[in-house]
Amino acid sequence: MNNTNGRYPQGFQTPGIVRSWAEGADIHTNQYRLNGSRKVAAYAQDDWRVSSQLTLNLGIRYDRDINFYGQNINEQNLTYQLLKDIGSQYAKLPRTPTKDISPRVGFAYDISGTGRKVLRGGYGLYFDGTGINTHYNIFILSNRPITFDATAVNTAIGVGQLANYRLGIDPLPEKPTITDRFPPGRRSGGYWFDPDITDPRTHQAHIGYTHEIAANTVFSVDYTHIEGRNDFRALEANPIINGQRLLAPVLQQVYGDPDRIGPLQIQASINKNRYDELAFLFERRMNRATFRATYVLSGAYSYGGQIAGSAYFTQPPSVWDQPFGPGEWGPTNTDERHRMVLYGVFNLPFGIQTSPVLRLASARPYNLLSGFDPVGGSVGAGLVQRWVDPATGQPVSAYSARGDNTTLLDMRVTKFIRLGSDRRRIGLFGEFFNLLNNVNFGEQYGGNARSVLFRQPVGYLAAGHGTYPFLLQLGARFEF
After folding, report:
1. Is residue 268 part of a domain?
2. What are phi and psi of 78, to 5 degrees?
3. For residue 228, what are the contacts with CB-CB under 8 A and spacing of at least 6?
4. What is the 3-state secondary structure (H, E, C) of 222-275?
5. How far is CA 290 from CA 117, 340, 346, in A?
6. What pLDDT, on the 0 to 100 scale, is given for residue 87?
7. Is residue 236 part of a domain?
8. Structural domain range at position 314
9. Counted domains in the chain
10. Cα 145 to chain center, whole Å?
11. Which residues, other chains included, contact 345 with Cβ-Cβ below 8 Å and sequence gap of 6+?
């Protein structure tokens, strides 16, 4: 506001100070739907007892999702028609995946022959289907009439599509209209499939061991490894490079209009991810008490920091053509390295029963971003530069920051009053939620470096994971 660096001589009215502009038509009549979609599946499996101590489980499954990529309406998609006109490599129709064959095998081995020591394991290939919400922007552009979003972006102050725009002085950019074609000169956003798109798949392997240490006392340990392939991710195919959209020359040549389309999101199934989990369980049952403790050491990683998400909402690459480039591999936003749950039911004297549950979890990660979109990415895709760490001068990787540890203690305390017979009693109880009244922010921290809330808490964990404050609930129950 005070022009201390000399870059804003007219303050907020300096020409070109607005970095980006996005606006949509104000009458929403879009209909996105799939007609004629069918899901067909078949499976066979069997347990085979090889010996008194070894059992095998063998199975195979086949899935086919017909028309879930909108194959019967895709030729009407406006982006597809434009890509055909300019001879793009993406101007092909997606195909129904026909090789979703999922074998799986498992075993259970009774080491001692008494059922007290059991080793178990398995492997399976699993396919995730798609659905209307995964690619709904593509289906919008295949049904008409439709609404459009239009965007304009500067790559620097006074450089780009808003180079001379003066906030509060010049008229607002013209609003796009409802139409059945891309409006000329409006830089409307387009959405299309990678022609090689297919259903995501995961390779899952597991091995575990359970040991009955003593009567009513069990210990187990389980390890699970999951490798995800062909997961969905959005790519930007028409970025701004040196102040000009990549496709501007060919759009000018074909249409005489370099701004016929602006951001162009290609929804692909190229992403990779990995999840590892080592879980421990101890459980002890006694006459007057039951106690259970679990501890999980895990790691969830992917390119772009998301697993099994909608293609539209995945984090695009920070460098538009490097989806597997430096800094792209990182933890997901739900990654919790450590998680412990302690649970018990204790019958105390005088007819009092307590049931505490303590949950402890390490901090989840969140993204650190510059708050600036350098290539004019698709509306809603969140394509922005990663934050540059001043200490190193290098961009940070995906989801490199950690939020707040989670601590949550709930408890139920019940006083039983017998009414003559052992079968009839009244239970007066109090339920204490978040007994420690701990504020659990989780990963809800501001990651936009241009915000005054950068690296500050901006919300709470999702409901059910520690959002609620201290709460006391009183009640009574009659048993007979």
Report:
1. yes
2. -65, -35
3. 200, 201, 202, 271, 272, 273, 274, 275, 302, 307, 308
4. EEEEEEEEEEEEEEECCCEECCEECCHHHHHHHHCCCCCCCCEEEEEEEEEEEE
5. 21, 17, 7
6. 95
7. yes
8. 31-156+174-346+376-389
9. 1
10. 31
11. 289, 290, 353, 354, 355
| Domain-located, residue 357 | no
10-residue mean pLDDT profile of the chain (480 residues): values are 82 87 64 80 95 96 91 89 95 92 97 94 92 79 73 83 89 78 85 93 97 94 96 90 91 94 91 96 94 97 84 74 89 92 95 95 92 67 75 88 94 91 86 92 90 91 76 92
Residues 188 and 150 sit within 8 Å (Cβ to Cβ):
yes
Structure tokens given for 402: 């950690």
CA dist 67 → 39, 141, 202, 220, 269 (Å)? 9, 16, 22, 44, 17
Cα atoms in the Cβ-side hemisphere of radius 13 Å centred on 373? 25
Backbone φ and ψ for 206, nearest 5 degrees, come out as -145, 145
- Token readout for 369 is 């971003």
Q: How many residues does the chain have?
A: 480
Cis omega (within 30 of 0) on the bond before 145?
A: yes
> How many alpha carbons lie under 13 Å from residue 316 in its C-beta half-sphere?
29
Is 252 part of any domain? yes
* Cα 248 to the center of its chain, rounded Å: 33
CA distance 340 to 125: 29
Residue type, position 234, single letter? A
CA distance 98 to 75: 21
User: Which amino acid makes up residue 426?
Assistant: I
| pLDDT computed for residue 378 by the predictor | 60
